Amino acid sequence: MRLRNVPGAREEIAASKYVLLDDAETKGKWNEIFGNDHPIQIEIGMGKGTFIMEMAQRHPEINFVGIEKYSSVLVRALEKLEAINNEKEEKGEATINNLLLFRMDAENIENYFAKDEVSDIFLNFSDPWPKDRHAKRRLTSDRFLARYINLMKKTGTITFKTDNTDLFNFSVKTANEEGWTFLKKTDDLHHSEYNEGNIMTEYEKKFSEMGNKIHMMQIIQ
Predict the structure, then answer these.
(1) Which of 95, 143, 192, 200 has its CA 20 to 30 A from that of 86?
(2) Secondary structure (H, E, C), 102-147
């Protein structure tokens, strides 16, 4: 799918207190950046941010980082976050202060997080990269799973959701081959025991309304 350029997106995100850019020095400094020692959970490929913003509101005791490669996508998440916080301020409510948006390429993720800095990782409706020659680019490939190990605590989990059956089967196979343990696995999340408390992303809502089943797995080292 071709991404539409959003005029002024780079300038808008560069000026925001809610956004970190890929030149930020963050590795080993996340507790300092957030100003506390709360656990850090990340979503790679957050899209418009619906999932991670809801997570941040439900769990003020956790720090969240939403990672997105494209400025044209991240700016939409930024606008949503600013709108939520403006509304909260008008009502005299606490704003979302445990979430930062990060524009960077997940290929370079080890440059921005140190060993044991990340508690949990969320991968929601990642690009399936359907051609075999692009398999290594999938966020659940063996190459990316190895990267995650270099960031995560031993107790950390990866939760992955998709409506793409081929990608899900690939992901399950890869996780098995790489020695990960499955805590949860289902081919139909919304009709499973794991659906309670599930937060739907924009794509999840869209695909569910189309009648697509949502696949989900949660794995641990």
Answers:
(1) 200
(2) EECCHHHHHHCCCCCCEEEEEEECCCCCCCHHHHHHCCCCHHHHHH
